[in-house]
From TrEMBL:
The name this protein goes by in its record: Uncharacterized protein
Top-level lineage group: Bacteria
Length: 66
């Protein structure tokens, strides 16, 4: 289970966040982009409430309790 502030990199981290509706923050080059609940994930993209984010271009950070 990832803790608050952990960077999500593994498929199981994203699956945990989907299963328990744990919010994530998304950054690009240390610039905040969005926060919300992950609705889908595959090896290349993360879907956050209808918007796709490339896993290679963005950083995903766990935000439980947000």
């Amino acid at each position: 289970m990832p803790h608050q502030g952990d960077i999500l990199t593994l498929q199981r981290h994203f699956q945990y966040h989907i299963q328990y509706a744990v919010p994530v923050e998304i950054y690009k080059d240390d610039v905040f982009v969005a926060i919300g609940v992950v609705t889908a994930v595959d090896e290349g993209f993360v879907e956050l409430q209808g918007t796709l984010y490339n896993r290679g271009l963005f950083t995903f950070i766990s935000r439980p309790g947000y």
